[in-house]
Amino acid sequence: MATTAVVYVLLATPLVAVAQPAGKVYRLGLLSPTTQWVGMDALREGLRALGYVEGHNMIIEHRSAEGRFERLPDLAAELVRLRVDIIVAVVTQASLAAKNATKTIPVVMVAVGDPVEAGLVPSLARPGGNVTGTSFPSVEVAGKSLEALNRVVPVLRSIAVLRNPANPVFQALMMQETEAAALSLGVELRVFGARDAEEIETTFPAMARGRFDGLIVIADPVFTRYRMRIAALAIKHRLPSASAFGGYADAGGLIAYAPSFFEPSARAAVYVDKILKGAKPADLPVEQATKYELVLNLRTAKALGLTIPPSIQADRIVE
To answer: What is the mean pLDDT of residues 296-312?
Structure first.
């Protein structure tokens, strides 16, 4: 795990619209694993609030790997060749690709689980180099979703884990925390891999044959994109499921315990603004999400024949 650093409040700087230099058009490179990622609207709204209007004083060059993480290095190199003014990189693998592609263009990472452990920055308080941004510490709460599932499911002895092997760095960190929680609870884990929608579909029948007591869905951009289908398949195969990414319970999953994805995304716009106005990434501390939410889906619980114990205090209930 990363060394402890000062946790900066995400909303410390208000998103107040300001005038940009007349005639100046900035080119922002946006690098993401999928075309539609949770938080994109928050980033764009944050930029607009700060006076950056697409097609007027900002051009956004969006490069998406469409779920194929191995494409990220080439896409990052393409953005460098376009001589963008700044790169916004979404999640760990995209941020690593951007960092490896350039030592001079500023890189603002968005929702990276553990930037120190991943090798993106030497410390949160003093990032150094050309990379800074926001951290989405879902790694630190990965085990919490398993703990919550253990409190809801009467007998939890064996768990299926869905992970994306194409997203190795972040997924490995998430697995470490999940395995630690499983060890403390005396729960056996079996890992299943899926890289895309097709593999998600074929993986669930194999899980069903294993007769597992529940399912943990490791946070991943591809799984976020297909969260409704994953949740539906979990219900179909009678697997109470939990995850550490926001929106999973809203999509039909039983449990979600995660920080908000929208705050780091909106906050990244503030980094972009500061850097375009002359601040150096090396001098801007990495900010961590501070708000976490436990969400339970009662409709899914009823469909699975489960009763939520009154001792579990959820931050939000989906009915």
So the answer is: 93
